[in-house]
Task: structure prediction
Amino acid sequence: MKPGNPHLGNILVVDDTVENLRLLTSMLTEYGYEVRPVINGRQALQAAAHSAPELVLLDINMPVMDGYEVCRRLKEMPAVREVPVIFLTALIEIADKTKAFGVGGVDYIVKPFQINEVLARVQVHLSLRRAQVELAGNYERLRQLEKMRDDLVHMIVHDMRSPLMVVMGHHDLLRGLLREHLSPDAAASLEEAAGGVRRLANMANDLLDVSKLEEHRLTLNCQNCGLLELAREVVAQIGVLDRSRRITVVPGVPALVSCDVGIMRRILQNLLDNAIKHTPTGSEVRVSVSDTGGQVRLSVADRGPGIPLAARDKIFDRFGVVQARADMQYHSVGLGLAFSKLAVEAHGGTIGVEEADGGGSVFWLQLAGL
Amino acid sequence: MQRILLVDDDDSTRKVLHLMLGQLGHEVTEARNGLEAVAQYDLAPADLVITDLVMPCMDGIETILKFKQRNPRPKIIAISGGGRFSADELLAMAKHLGAQQILVKPLTLEQISAAILQVSS
Result:
């Protein structure tokens, strides 16, 4: 007998008939497999517990503990649970086959054995098993990488918050100290800087909240809120920073909903930032609300190049990048829209984009009204 | 006007918060961690403690617990930008332990002013 090659496969062979055991062992060893022959169920369980094989060839018809029972017990051992079991049987009743698969077997070989058939089936199930193991390993590695990425994001955002605090705080102080001494241009510069910092702070929050929303870990502090009033407030804040485009809130119903006001404010800021980014200077961004049949809808219409039909789903993906067909420029839409979608959905609402009459896009969100 | 004890390990954050609180008309003393804060408080009590949560030596959570045993007992505002736990989780913990107000960094003059007003009323 040649010594087996552990790289080719380690096989546990269980058969109470000594001739069969000898035949299988010498045949598999001949082809280079490492074989552990045992003559009953008890020995099989001991051998498997001692070290898990990569494959088990298991006789069904044995005294004391038959092959079905051995298989059942092997499947209860965590380290052996996934190891493929091929049954050996002289019985070929349909009921036996069904039972063999029922207890966790992957295949069966009918006695008397054909050498080539045994080798072929052993090879197939060993390579299947190895592919499974490799896949599971790759999955685990990817999962770890994803976790590392999320941890890194948390760390970066945390480290960003202190300098952001310093910039925002000093800006607030300067504004107070210099209020009466600044020229309009200088005051405008200061506000531009404030807008930039606000966007940076929003980005930091979006990054963290997107992860939390994806894992359903974000707690909403819901209270009653009128979307029209909130939209006016956000537009007033952004309008100070951007005088080159007209942002209009169309007068309408109060549009009362129950929502986390802080989160909803950020959703509106994101939708408006996005609209402004894509609207040419001198054009208009229109915000409107409606309340029909208990559904409150808020729309932000821009005069940008529009979003190709095929990209309308992708635009709400994390780090989705859309090629706007009209100007063939790549626009990174970053995290703002991904955050907005997840956050609207956490409120039980829906969000979407469609083409505006006369060109541009309408981003809309819909929530249950009060 | 409130006497405020400001606790944060980051020098520039502490400095800007000090200036902001000063502009709001409050009297501010500083500490760089919980240990310093408790020692400082025992020398000169404050009406309000504003504390960061992630700090060396004694973190904000332990600091809040220490101040709960002090007599007179100060009002507490916890602020955080997060760390090993997210800012929300840390701040929820702080609130549970007795902080009257919690704020996420970065924060504006307006937010600080509103929080102090709410805590002291």
Notes: Chain A has nine helices and 14 strands. Chain A touches chain B at residues 154, 157-158, 161-170, 172-173, 176, 197, 201, 205, 208, 212, 219 (CB under 8 Å).
